[in-house]
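This section describes the prediction task in plain terms. A model, or a person checking by hand, is given the sequence of a single protein chain and must write out its three-dimensional structure as a string of tokens. No templates, partner chains or ligands are provided. The sample shown here is typical of the held-out split.
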Amino acid sequence: MTLIRHVLAFLFVVSTAIGVSAQDRSVNVSFPPGMTATTIDGTVSGRDAVLYRVGAEAGQTMSVVLSSDNAATYFNVYAPGRSLGDEALAIGEMSDPINNWSGDLPASGEYTVAVFLFRSAARRGETSNFRLDVSVIGSTGEAVSNDFADGLAGGPDFLQVAVSGGGTLNLRAGPSGGAGIVTRLSNGQNVRNLGCRMTEGRRWCRVATLADPGYEGWAAGDFLIEGTAETTSGAPGMSVGDGEERVQFASGASGAEPRGQLAPGESRRYVLNARSGQNLYVRVAPQGDPMSYQIFNPDQTFLVDQVSSEQEYRSQLWQSGDHVVEVINRTNSVAGYSVIMGIE
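The expected answer:
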């Protein structure tokens, strides 16, 4: 009974020593592309704590190792939906060896690793410089939908891009920061939710744009909130880098305006099907310095040899089939643009 009382007393001290503070910092952790672990250097002072959010799936194994220049520094691990003041999944002080824990995860979601100073050191206002090693290994399941925008299983049917500063969000070919960029989604743009999964320590969601031309890929869930079926202005997304895409007009329309972004020396080809005798209109509108473009006939001969974007094209076609408009960035900086194309 004495031992039980001592353990209960210890757990009470741990829980009360790290109550929620207005100065607690939250940090979203993501692993380098293709990696299952990361190392974080940080500092904690006084009664404050640093809360590291790490995404993982049920059945995976998480490992946490903490080293510091202050022996009164510890960590707790909390299951999804729990944090300071709640029951901890793991307590660094009680691990063997101390501050070195590894365990199988009971649920999918965002885990919290809280780093803090023990009560006496916190009361004295001490500071600790620490290094935190976090890894998550084990296979992930199939992408699933969720009844909540921040979870994994059930789902809002639609998500919305929420990027601070009104920037754009990369839509990637796979659930990894190293996967190729398919397009860029505008801040506030609604997309269809095709399911999420945890990988590289964060939530990735497979989504599809709502407007033509349609794009499908993976976006970091940190920047997605619950959305609607409304097609927002700015959709579809922005194509990025070298590549080729087929241009399709919306129902009843005779033109389209795809957008893109190219690094210096890159080009992108837009494939447009048209018939002999139809009139083709092309105008490239760069966001900065003039760019270049050229147009190929279906037999790969030049319809228009390379010209500046300052010159638009309008003329009758004499071949039927796939015509190609190639936009080229010959400037010395990354360039955004739109291509206005029409057929009559």
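For orientation: The longest helix spans residues 2-17.
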